[in-house]
Design brief:
The protein is an alpha+beta fold. It has seven helices and 15 strands. It binds 4'-deoxy-4'-aminopyridoxal-5'-phosphate (PMP). 4'-deoxy-4'-aminopyridoxal-5'-phosphate binds next to helix 5 and strand 13.
Length: 286
């Protein structure tokens, strides 16, 4: 039975109850985070928490939570749920009000909910065994504050569904100028002539922790050239490799873009180097 954490208490999932007047439910007024844990070892715990605290500050949710408090909650949840390969989902809404009113209410306490879910084992850099991804594309129609990890994910959900309904694993998104932003639930990378490229961060992209760690690892431990800059649709169409990154996928190799093979439909050699380095250093960022 899954054990979850709600407002200071651990309990079986079916006992966790939240008021319908919670602003997370009524407005999607909250911040969330997903931290991967493999056999009890987190990946990127500190940067995940930094992003979450930045998100809470951005939407002015007042709280007294600390990094060590969340470390304890996450460790305890993993232990209570078997310490396997787990994603830890943390959701902090502004709290429960007595009426539905847009303005931020005073004197409400944030609602904190956390639970774990099974994730695949950390991928190894094995071209024969690695999962591959098919993606399609769409204009990015989300809001202008995608750098905030808001629980209001309908835009992402609709973009994800567009790909899912077409038999794809993800949807790559392009802004009105046909520049790559990210994917509906991942950051995006391309490789051209041995150079790893990813869109520079701005308010149209989530600052992904896998992206952050991967860039750091490539810069520290490889000679691979890395560029963060605008990437055009034409560059994506002509890429040697395309990757999507997220906490549960790590570096995911895309082998099909809008029905056309990428790198002849096979995982590319730079992916192998990148995932291998990620696997070696993934636990260094806690
Ligand atoms: N972009 C979006 C829109 C996301 O939802 C996610 C997380 N699923 C990411 C990027 C990747 O972020 P991270 O590497 O921190 O999981």
């Amino acid at each position: 039975m899954s054990i979850v954490y709600l407002n200071g208490e651990y309990m079986p999932a079916h006992e966790a109850k939240i008021s319908p007047m919670d602003r997370g439910f009524l407005f999607g007024d909250g911040i969330y985070e997903v931290v991967p844990s493999y056999g009890g070892q987190f990946v990127g715990f500190e940067p995940h928490m930094t992003r979450m605290f930045d998100g809470l500050a951005a939407i002015e949710i007042q709280h007294e939570f600390s990094l060590e408090y969340f470390r304890d909650v996450c460790q305890t949840l993993c232990e209570k749920n078997g310490n396997g390969n787990l994603g830890i989902y943390i959701h902090i809404s502004r709290g429960t009000d007595v009426k539905r009113h847009h303005a931020y209410p005073k004197d409400v306490r944030p609602t904190l909910f956390a639970y774990t879910f099974d994730i695949p084992a950390a991928p190894s850099a094995d071209i024969e065994k690695a999962k591959t991804y098919k993606v399609n594309t769409h204009q990015d129609l989300r809001w202008q504050r995608c750098n905030i990890k808001s629980t209001a994910l309908l835009g992402n959900v609709m973009h994800y569904q567009h790909g899912h309904a077409a038999g794809c694993d993800e949807t790559l998104l392009f802004n009105a100028d046909n520049q790559l932003t990210e994917a509906s639930s991942c950051n995006a990378f391309i490789v051209k002539d041995g150079v790893v490229l990813t869109p520079n961060l701005d308010s149209q992209k989530l600052p992904g922790i896998t992206r952050l760690i991967l860039l750091d690892i490539l810069k520290k431990y490889s000679d691979i050239k890395v560029e963060e800059r605008i990437i055009t649709r034409a560059e994506v169409d002509n890429a040697d490799e395309i990757w999507i990154t997220s906490s549960t996928k790590q570096v995911g190799a895309v082998v099909e873009l809008d029905g056309k093979p990428v790198n002849g439909g096979k995982i590319g050699p730079v992916w192998q180097q990148a995932q291998s380095l990620f696997s070696t250093h993934q636990f260094d960022y806690n």
